[in-house]
Amino acid sequence: MVSNPTASAQDAASDAASNDGKLRVGVIGCGAGVFHLEGYQEEPRAKVVALAGLDTDRCQSLSARFDIPAVYREYQELLADPSIDAVSVAVPNHLHLPVVTAAVEAGKHVLVEKPLARTAAEGEQMVAAARKAERILAICFNRRYRHDVQLVHDQIQAGGFGRIYYAKAFWMRRSGIPGLGTWFTRKEQAGGGPLIDLGVHVLDMALWAMGNPEVTAVSAATFAEIGTQGKGNWPGRVSRQAVGLEYEVEDLATAFIRMADGAVLHLETSWAAYTGAGDDFGITLMGSQGGAEIFSKDYALTGTLKTFGDFQGVAVDGAPRLVKLNGHAEVIKRFVTSILEGGPVSPSGEEGVDRARLVDAIYRSAELGREIQISELTV
Ligand SMILES: NC(=O)c1ccc[n+]([C@@H]2O[C@H](COP(=O)([O-])OP(=O)(O)OC[C@H]3O[C@@H](n4cnc5c(N)ncnc54)[C@H](O)[C@@H]3O)[C@@H](O)[C@H]2O)c1
Protein backbone atom coordinates (compact mmCIF):
# COMPACT_ATOMS: atom_id res chain seq x y z
CA MET A 1 0.00 0.00 0.00
CA VAL A 2 1.17 3.56 -0.63
CA SER A 3 1.94 5.18 2.67
CA ASN A 4 -0.15 8.20 3.45
CA PRO A 5 1.99 10.28 5.81
CA THR A 6 0.08 12.21 8.44
CA ALA A 7 1.63 15.41 7.08
CA SER A 8 0.02 14.96 3.66
CA ALA A 9 -3.33 14.06 5.23
CA GLN A 10 -3.11 17.24 7.29
CA ASP A 11 -2.15 19.27 4.20
CA ALA A 12 -5.11 17.88 2.31
CA ALA A 13 -7.48 18.43 5.21
CA SER A 14 -6.35 22.04 5.62
CA ASP A 15 -6.45 22.68 1.86
CA ALA A 16 -9.94 21.23 1.78
CA ALA A 17 -10.96 23.35 4.75
CA SER A 18 -9.96 26.49 2.83
CA ASN A 19 -12.21 25.45 -0.09
CA ASP A 20 -15.70 25.11 1.39
CA GLY A 21 -14.40 22.08 3.22
CA LYS A 22 -14.26 20.13 -0.05
CA LEU A 23 -11.35 18.45 -1.74
CA ARG A 24 -10.78 20.04 -5.18
CA VAL A 25 -10.60 17.41 -7.91
CA GLY A 26 -9.67 17.39 -11.60
CA VAL A 27 -10.75 14.67 -14.03
CA ILE A 28 -8.42 13.90 -16.94
CA GLY A 29 -10.11 12.08 -19.83
CA CYS A 30 -13.72 12.44 -20.98
CA GLY A 31 -14.58 8.84 -21.92
CA ALA A 32 -14.53 6.67 -18.78
CA GLY A 33 -13.97 10.01 -17.03
CA VAL A 34 -17.77 10.31 -16.98
CA PHE A 35 -17.98 7.43 -14.47
CA HIS A 36 -15.70 9.44 -12.17
CA LEU A 37 -17.82 12.57 -12.61
CA GLU A 38 -20.90 10.54 -11.63
CA GLY A 39 -19.02 8.97 -8.72
CA TYR A 40 -17.83 12.30 -7.29
CA GLN A 41 -21.45 13.49 -7.34
CA GLU A 42 -22.11 10.91 -4.61
CA GLU A 43 -19.14 12.17 -2.53
CA PRO A 44 -19.98 15.29 -0.52
CA ARG A 45 -16.39 15.78 0.69
CA ALA A 46 -15.07 16.50 -2.83
CA LYS A 47 -16.02 18.57 -5.83
CA VAL A 48 -14.80 18.38 -9.41
CA VAL A 49 -13.49 21.79 -10.44
CA ALA A 50 -11.69 20.99 -13.70
CA LEU A 51 -11.78 18.62 -16.64
CA ALA A 52 -9.16 17.88 -19.33
CA GLY A 53 -9.43 16.11 -22.65
CA LEU A 54 -8.42 16.47 -26.27
CA ASP A 55 -11.94 15.82 -27.56
CA THR A 56 -13.31 19.30 -26.97
CA ASP A 57 -16.96 18.55 -27.82
CA ARG A 58 -17.20 15.67 -25.36
CA CYS A 59 -15.44 17.69 -22.65
CA GLN A 60 -17.65 20.75 -23.17
CA SER A 61 -20.81 18.69 -22.98
CA LEU A 62 -19.62 17.01 -19.75
CA SER A 63 -18.62 20.35 -18.26
CA ALA A 64 -22.14 21.67 -18.96
CA ARG A 65 -23.81 18.52 -17.62
CA PHE A 66 -21.76 18.41 -14.40
CA ASP A 67 -21.30 22.18 -13.99
CA ILE A 68 -17.50 22.14 -14.07
CA PRO A 69 -15.97 25.62 -14.27
CA ALA A 70 -12.60 24.87 -15.91
CA VAL A 71 -12.02 22.82 -19.08
CA TYR A 72 -8.53 22.21 -20.47
CA ARG A 73 -7.21 20.29 -23.43
CA GLU A 74 -3.83 18.91 -22.35
CA TYR A 75 -3.49 17.27 -18.94
CA GLN A 76 -0.45 19.45 -18.15
CA GLU A 77 -2.67 22.55 -18.15
CA LEU A 78 -4.96 21.04 -15.52
CA LEU A 79 -2.02 19.85 -13.40
CA ALA A 80 -0.60 23.41 -13.39
CA ASP A 81 -3.54 24.58 -11.22
CA PRO A 82 -2.09 24.55 -7.69
CA SER A 83 -5.55 24.64 -6.07
CA ILE A 84 -6.35 21.11 -7.31
CA ASP A 85 -5.72 18.50 -4.59
CA ALA A 86 -6.46 15.28 -6.46
CA VAL A 87 -7.07 13.95 -9.96
CA SER A 88 -8.84 11.04 -11.58
CA VAL A 89 -6.93 9.78 -14.63
CA ALA A 90 -8.94 8.09 -17.41
CA VAL A 91 -6.73 8.34 -20.50
CA PRO A 92 -5.47 5.65 -22.90
CA ASN A 93 -3.29 3.03 -21.20
CA HIS A 94 0.06 4.19 -22.61
CA LEU A 95 -0.52 7.61 -21.03
CA HIS A 96 -1.13 6.29 -17.51
CA LEU A 97 2.61 6.33 -16.66
CA PRO A 98 3.40 9.88 -17.88
CA VAL A 99 0.13 11.43 -16.63
CA VAL A 100 0.23 9.78 -13.19
CA THR A 101 3.92 10.62 -12.74
CA ALA A 102 3.36 14.26 -13.72
CA ALA A 103 0.32 14.44 -11.41
CA VAL A 104 2.06 13.16 -8.27
CA GLU A 105 5.08 15.36 -9.03
CA ALA A 106 2.65 18.31 -9.23
CA GLY A 107 1.48 17.38 -5.71
CA LYS A 108 -1.84 15.74 -6.65
CA HIS A 109 -3.19 12.53 -5.17
CA VAL A 110 -4.21 10.19 -8.01
CA LEU A 111 -6.98 7.74 -8.76
CA VAL A 112 -6.08 6.03 -12.04
CA GLU A 113 -8.27 3.84 -14.21
CA LYS A 114 -7.51 0.16 -14.69
CA PRO A 115 -5.28 -1.30 -15.99
CA LEU A 116 -2.64 0.46 -13.87
CA ALA A 117 -0.26 0.39 -16.84
CA ARG A 118 0.70 -1.61 -19.91
CA THR A 119 3.22 -3.64 -17.88
CA ALA A 120 4.18 -4.27 -14.26
CA ALA A 121 7.48 -2.45 -14.90
CA GLU A 122 5.56 0.73 -15.77
CA GLY A 123 3.32 0.21 -12.77
CA GLU A 124 6.37 -0.07 -10.47
CA GLN A 125 7.59 3.30 -11.79
CA MET A 126 4.22 4.88 -11.01
CA VAL A 127 4.16 3.47 -7.48
CA ALA A 128 7.74 4.67 -6.89
CA ALA A 129 6.89 8.16 -8.16
CA ALA A 130 3.87 8.37 -5.83
CA ARG A 131 5.94 7.18 -2.85
CA LYS A 132 8.66 9.72 -3.59
CA ALA A 133 6.14 12.55 -3.86
CA GLU A 134 4.28 11.25 -0.75
CA ARG A 135 1.02 11.20 -2.68
CA ILE A 136 -1.67 8.54 -2.69
CA LEU A 137 -1.98 6.35 -5.78
CA ALA A 138 -5.26 4.43 -5.98
CA ILE A 139 -6.54 2.30 -8.86
CA CYS A 140 -10.09 2.02 -10.09
CA PHE A 141 -11.00 -1.65 -9.68
CA ASN A 142 -14.63 -0.56 -9.50
CA ARG A 143 -16.19 -3.99 -10.06
CA ARG A 144 -14.74 -5.17 -6.75
CA TYR A 145 -17.43 -3.01 -5.13
CA ARG A 146 -20.42 -4.69 -6.71
CA HIS A 147 -22.71 -6.00 -3.97
CA ASP A 148 -22.37 -9.61 -5.20
CA VAL A 149 -18.55 -9.48 -5.08
CA GLN A 150 -18.60 -7.82 -1.66
CA LEU A 151 -20.82 -10.56 -0.22
CA VAL A 152 -18.76 -13.39 -1.69
CA HIS A 153 -15.53 -11.78 -0.47
CA ASP A 154 -16.92 -11.40 3.06
CA GLN A 155 -18.27 -14.96 3.10
CA ILE A 156 -14.91 -16.39 1.98
CA GLN A 157 -12.94 -14.26 4.43
CA ALA A 158 -15.26 -15.41 7.25
CA GLY A 159 -14.49 -19.03 6.28
CA GLY A 160 -18.07 -19.67 5.20
CA PHE A 161 -17.09 -21.56 2.04
CA GLY A 162 -14.14 -23.40 3.60
CA ARG A 163 -11.02 -23.57 1.42
CA ILE A 164 -11.48 -22.20 -2.10
CA TYR A 165 -9.68 -24.63 -4.39
CA TYR A 166 -11.17 -23.92 -7.83
CA ALA A 167 -12.17 -20.59 -9.31
CA LYS A 168 -13.31 -19.37 -12.69
CA ALA A 169 -13.30 -15.83 -14.01
CA PHE A 170 -14.65 -14.78 -17.38
CA TRP A 171 -15.66 -11.75 -19.43
CA MET A 172 -16.83 -12.77 -22.86
CA ARG A 173 -18.16 -10.51 -25.60
CA ARG A 174 -19.61 -11.78 -28.85
CA SER A 175 -18.87 -8.54 -30.63
CA GLY A 176 -17.33 -5.87 -28.45
CA ILE A 177 -13.99 -4.56 -29.65
CA PRO A 178 -14.06 -1.06 -28.14
CA GLY A 179 -13.17 0.79 -31.32
CA LEU A 180 -11.38 -0.97 -34.18
CA GLY A 181 -8.47 1.17 -35.31
CA THR A 182 -8.42 3.33 -32.16
CA TRP A 183 -5.74 3.22 -29.45
CA PHE A 184 -7.54 0.17 -27.99
CA THR A 185 -6.40 -2.08 -30.84
CA ARG A 186 -2.80 -0.86 -31.01
CA LYS A 187 -0.35 -2.91 -28.97
CA GLU A 188 1.94 0.01 -28.22
CA GLN A 189 -0.89 2.16 -26.88
CA ALA A 190 -3.15 -0.37 -25.15
CA GLY A 191 -0.58 -2.95 -24.06
CA GLY A 192 -2.98 -5.72 -25.11
CA GLY A 193 -6.58 -6.60 -25.90
CA PRO A 194 -9.43 -8.04 -23.79
CA LEU A 195 -7.01 -9.55 -21.25
CA ILE A 196 -5.65 -6.17 -20.14
CA ASP A 197 -9.01 -4.43 -20.68
CA LEU A 198 -11.65 -6.85 -19.33
CA GLY A 199 -9.72 -9.81 -17.93
CA VAL A 200 -8.00 -7.59 -15.40
CA HIS A 201 -11.42 -6.69 -13.89
CA VAL A 202 -12.55 -10.29 -13.38
CA LEU A 203 -9.11 -11.44 -12.24
CA ASP A 204 -9.27 -8.71 -9.62
CA MET A 205 -12.81 -9.72 -8.59
CA ALA A 206 -11.83 -13.38 -8.14
CA LEU A 207 -8.42 -12.89 -6.53
CA TRP A 208 -9.65 -10.18 -4.19
CA ALA A 209 -12.61 -12.33 -3.11
CA MET A 210 -10.17 -15.19 -2.47
CA GLY A 211 -8.02 -12.95 -0.24
CA ASN A 212 -5.28 -12.26 -2.81
CA PRO A 213 -3.58 -15.69 -2.79
CA GLU A 214 -0.04 -15.78 -4.15
CA VAL A 215 0.03 -16.68 -7.86
CA THR A 216 2.91 -18.99 -8.72
CA ALA A 217 2.45 -20.18 -12.33
CA VAL A 218 0.47 -19.48 -15.48
CA SER A 219 -0.28 -21.39 -18.66
CA ALA A 220 -2.05 -19.30 -21.30
CA ALA A 221 -2.98 -18.84 -24.92
CA THR A 222 -4.12 -15.80 -26.86
CA PHE A 223 -5.78 -15.54 -30.27
CA ALA A 224 -6.40 -12.75 -32.80
CA GLU A 225 -8.95 -14.25 -35.18
CA ILE A 226 -11.85 -11.79 -35.50
CA GLY A 227 -10.42 -8.28 -35.17
CA THR A 228 -7.79 -9.11 -37.75
CA GLN A 229 -10.61 -9.62 -40.28
CA GLY A 230 -11.94 -6.12 -39.48
CA LYS A 231 -14.93 -7.70 -37.68
CA GLY A 232 -16.16 -7.65 -34.09
CA ASN A 233 -16.47 -3.93 -33.36
CA TRP A 234 -18.79 -3.02 -30.47
CA PRO A 235 -22.15 -2.08 -32.05
CA GLY A 236 -22.72 1.62 -31.67
CA ARG A 237 -19.15 2.25 -30.59
CA VAL A 238 -17.69 4.22 -33.44
CA SER A 239 -14.00 4.23 -34.12
CA ARG A 240 -13.74 7.79 -32.93
CA GLN A 241 -10.02 8.21 -33.40
CA ALA A 242 -9.67 5.70 -36.19
CA VAL A 243 -6.92 6.32 -38.65
CA GLY A 244 -7.03 2.84 -40.12
CA LEU A 245 -8.10 -0.62 -39.16
CA GLU A 246 -4.91 -1.88 -37.57
CA TYR A 247 -5.60 -4.75 -35.22
CA GLU A 248 -2.48 -5.61 -33.25
CA VAL A 249 -3.81 -7.22 -30.05
CA GLU A 250 -5.53 -10.47 -29.09
CA ASP A 251 -9.31 -10.81 -29.30
CA LEU A 252 -9.47 -13.82 -26.97
CA ALA A 253 -7.28 -14.92 -24.07
CA THR A 254 -7.48 -17.96 -21.82
CA ALA A 255 -5.29 -18.89 -18.85
CA PHE A 256 -4.85 -21.53 -16.18
CA ILE A 257 -3.43 -19.93 -13.07
CA ARG A 258 -1.86 -21.79 -10.11
CA MET A 259 -1.68 -20.44 -6.55
CA ALA A 260 0.87 -21.24 -3.85
CA ASP A 261 -1.84 -22.94 -1.74
CA GLY A 262 -2.70 -25.36 -4.56
CA ALA A 263 -5.87 -23.53 -5.70
CA VAL A 264 -6.31 -22.88 -9.41
CA LEU A 265 -8.19 -20.26 -11.42
CA HIS A 266 -9.35 -20.56 -15.00
CA LEU A 267 -9.74 -17.32 -16.95
CA GLU A 268 -11.36 -16.66 -20.30
CA THR A 269 -11.97 -13.31 -21.89
CA SER A 270 -12.86 -12.05 -25.35
CA TRP A 271 -13.74 -8.85 -27.14
CA ALA A 272 -15.11 -10.83 -30.07
CA ALA A 273 -15.78 -14.55 -30.49
CA TYR A 274 -18.37 -16.82 -32.03
CA THR A 275 -20.08 -17.69 -28.74
CA GLY A 276 -23.49 -17.35 -27.14
CA ALA A 277 -22.23 -14.70 -24.74
CA GLY A 278 -23.27 -11.12 -25.46
CA ASP A 279 -21.29 -9.00 -23.02
CA ASP A 280 -21.25 -11.24 -19.96
CA PHE A 281 -18.86 -11.48 -17.06
CA GLY A 282 -18.57 -13.21 -13.72
CA ILE A 283 -16.67 -15.42 -11.34
CA THR A 284 -17.25 -18.86 -9.83
CA LEU A 285 -15.68 -19.93 -6.56
CA MET A 286 -15.78 -23.52 -5.34
CA GLY A 287 -14.80 -24.22 -1.74
CA SER A 288 -14.70 -27.25 0.54
CA GLN A 289 -17.82 -26.08 2.42
CA GLY A 290 -19.72 -24.04 -0.13
CA GLY A 291 -19.46 -21.95 -3.22
CA ALA A 292 -20.82 -19.06 -5.25
CA GLU A 293 -21.41 -18.05 -8.84
CA ILE A 294 -21.68 -14.47 -10.06
CA PHE A 295 -23.03 -14.09 -13.59
CA SER A 296 -23.67 -10.57 -14.86
CA LYS A 297 -25.39 -10.34 -18.23
CA ASP A 298 -25.06 -6.95 -19.91
CA TYR A 299 -23.74 -5.30 -16.72
CA ALA A 300 -26.62 -6.43 -14.47
CA LEU A 301 -26.02 -5.52 -10.83
CA THR A 302 -28.81 -7.53 -9.19
CA GLY A 303 -30.10 -11.06 -9.65
CA THR A 304 -26.51 -12.07 -10.39
CA LEU A 305 -25.43 -14.15 -7.37
CA LYS A 306 -26.10 -17.80 -6.60
CA THR A 307 -24.70 -19.50 -3.53
CA PHE A 308 -24.31 -23.23 -2.97
CA GLY A 309 -24.29 -25.13 0.32
CA ASP A 310 -25.95 -27.93 2.27
CA PHE A 311 -28.91 -28.15 4.62
CA GLN A 312 -28.99 -31.38 6.64
CA GLY A 313 -27.02 -33.10 3.92
CA VAL A 314 -29.23 -31.83 1.12
CA ALA A 315 -27.87 -29.44 -1.51
CA VAL A 316 -29.20 -25.89 -1.18
CA ASP A 317 -28.98 -23.06 -3.70
CA GLY A 318 -29.36 -19.47 -2.50
CA ALA A 319 -30.05 -16.23 -4.29
CA PRO A 320 -29.15 -13.30 -2.01
CA ARG A 321 -31.14 -10.11 -2.56
CA LEU A 322 -28.71 -7.58 -3.92
CA VAL A 323 -28.69 -3.81 -4.05
CA LYS A 324 -27.21 -1.71 -6.83
CA LEU A 325 -23.88 -0.20 -5.81
CA ASN A 326 -21.96 2.28 -7.98
CA GLY A 327 -18.44 0.83 -8.11
CA HIS A 328 -16.77 4.09 -9.13
CA ALA A 329 -18.49 5.95 -6.28
CA GLU A 330 -17.31 3.26 -3.84
CA VAL A 331 -13.69 3.52 -5.04
CA ILE A 332 -13.89 7.34 -4.91
CA LYS A 333 -15.22 7.19 -1.34
CA ARG A 334 -12.19 5.14 -0.27
CA PHE A 335 -9.79 7.43 -2.18
CA VAL A 336 -11.20 10.59 -0.58
CA THR A 337 -11.23 9.03 2.90
CA SER A 338 -7.59 8.06 2.55
CA ILE A 339 -6.63 11.60 1.48
CA LEU A 340 -8.59 13.34 4.22
CA GLU A 341 -8.11 10.93 7.09
CA GLY A 342 -4.78 9.26 6.31
CA GLY A 343 -4.26 5.52 6.30
CA PRO A 344 -3.64 3.17 3.40
CA VAL A 345 -5.79 3.22 0.31
CA SER A 346 -7.32 0.17 -1.35
CA PRO A 347 -7.46 -0.65 -4.22
CA SER A 348 -3.89 0.70 -4.25
CA GLY A 349 -1.25 1.20 -6.91
CA GLU A 350 0.57 -1.81 -5.47
CA GLU A 351 -2.52 -3.98 -6.06
CA GLY A 352 -2.52 -2.65 -9.62
CA VAL A 353 1.09 -3.80 -10.01
CA ASP A 354 0.17 -7.29 -8.76
CA ARG A 355 -2.55 -7.58 -11.41
CA ALA A 356 -0.22 -6.14 -14.08
CA ARG A 357 2.39 -8.77 -13.18
CA LEU A 358 -0.20 -11.50 -13.70
CA VAL A 359 -1.22 -9.98 -17.05
CA ASP A 360 2.49 -9.87 -18.01
CA ALA A 361 2.79 -13.56 -17.10
CA ILE A 362 -0.26 -14.51 -19.16
CA TYR A 363 1.06 -12.73 -22.25
CA ARG A 364 4.53 -14.24 -21.70
CA SER A 365 3.17 -17.77 -21.33
CA ALA A 366 1.05 -17.35 -24.47
CA GLU A 367 4.07 -16.07 -26.37
CA LEU A 368 6.28 -18.97 -25.23
CA GLY A 369 3.53 -21.59 -25.56
CA ARG A 370 4.25 -23.14 -22.16
CA GLU A 371 3.54 -22.75 -18.45
CA ILE A 372 5.75 -20.16 -16.80
CA GLN A 373 6.59 -19.51 -13.17
CA ILE A 374 5.91 -15.99 -11.90
CA SER A 375 9.48 -16.08 -10.56
CA GLU A 376 10.70 -16.20 -14.19
CA LEU A 377 9.47 -12.64 -14.75
CA THR A 378 12.05 -9.96 -14.21
CA VAL A 379 9.78 -7.47 -12.37
N1 LIG B 1 -13.28 0.98 -14.95
C1 LIG B 1 -14.05 0.93 -16.03
O1 LIG B 1 -15.17 0.43 -15.96
C2 LIG B 1 -13.55 1.49 -17.34
C3 LIG B 1 -14.41 1.60 -18.44
C4 LIG B 1 -13.92 2.10 -19.63
C5 LIG B 1 -12.56 2.50 -19.72
N2 LIG B 1 -11.75 2.37 -18.63
C6 LIG B 1 -10.33 2.78 -18.71
O2 LIG B 1 -10.28 4.21 -18.87
C7 LIG B 1 -9.17 4.56 -19.68
C8 LIG B 1 -9.67 5.41 -20.85
O3 LIG B 1 -10.56 4.63 -21.64
P1 LIG B 1 -11.76 5.33 -22.48
O4 LIG B 1 -12.66 4.25 -22.91
O5 LIG B 1 -12.30 6.46 -21.70
O6 LIG B 1 -10.92 5.88 -23.72
P2 LIG B 1 -11.37 7.09 -24.68
O7 LIG B 1 -10.47 7.01 -25.86
O8 LIG B 1 -12.84 7.07 -24.86
O9 LIG B 1 -11.05 8.42 -23.85
C9 LIG B 1 -9.73 8.81 -23.55
C10 LIG B 1 -9.73 10.25 -23.07
O10 LIG B 1 -8.38 10.64 -22.77
C11 LIG B 1 -8.19 11.94 -23.32
N3 LIG B 1 -6.77 12.25 -23.56
C12 LIG B 1 -5.91 11.61 -24.37
N4 LIG B 1 -4.71 12.25 -24.36
C13 LIG B 1 -4.85 13.31 -23.50
C14 LIG B 1 -3.98 14.37 -23.11
N5 LIG B 1 -2.72 14.47 -23.57
N6 LIG B 1 -4.43 15.31 -22.23
C15 LIG B 1 -5.72 15.22 -21.77
N7 LIG B 1 -6.58 14.24 -22.12
C16 LIG B 1 -6.15 13.30 -22.99
C17 LIG B 1 -8.98 11.91 -24.61
O11 LIG B 1 -9.19 13.22 -25.10
C18 LIG B 1 -10.26 11.24 -24.13
O12 LIG B 1 -11.11 12.16 -23.51
C19 LIG B 1 -8.51 3.27 -20.12
O13 LIG B 1 -7.40 3.00 -19.28
C20 LIG B 1 -9.60 2.22 -19.91
O14 LIG B 1 -9.07 0.93 -19.60
C21 LIG B 1 -12.22 1.89 -17.47
UniProtKB/TrEMBL annotation:
Q: Look up the domain of life of the source.
A: Bacteria
Q: Where is the Gfo/Idh/MocA-like oxidoreductase N-terminal domain?
A: 23-138
Q: Which organism is it from?
A: uncultured Thermomicrobiales bacterium
Q: Which GO terms describe its molecular function?
A: nucleotide binding; oxidoreductase activity
Any Pfam family matching the protein = GFO_IDH_MocA_C3
Q: What is this protein called?
A: GH109
Q: Where is the GFO/IDH/MocA-like oxidoreductase domain?
A: 150-292
- InterPro entries to which the protein is assigned, alphabetical: Gfo/Idh/MocA-like_OxRdtase_N (IPR000683), Gfo/Idh/MocA_oxidrdct_glycsds (IPR050463), GFO_IDH_MocA-like_dom (IPR055170), NAD(P)-bd_dom_sf (IPR036291)
Query: Which keywords are on file for this protein?
Result: Oxidoreductase
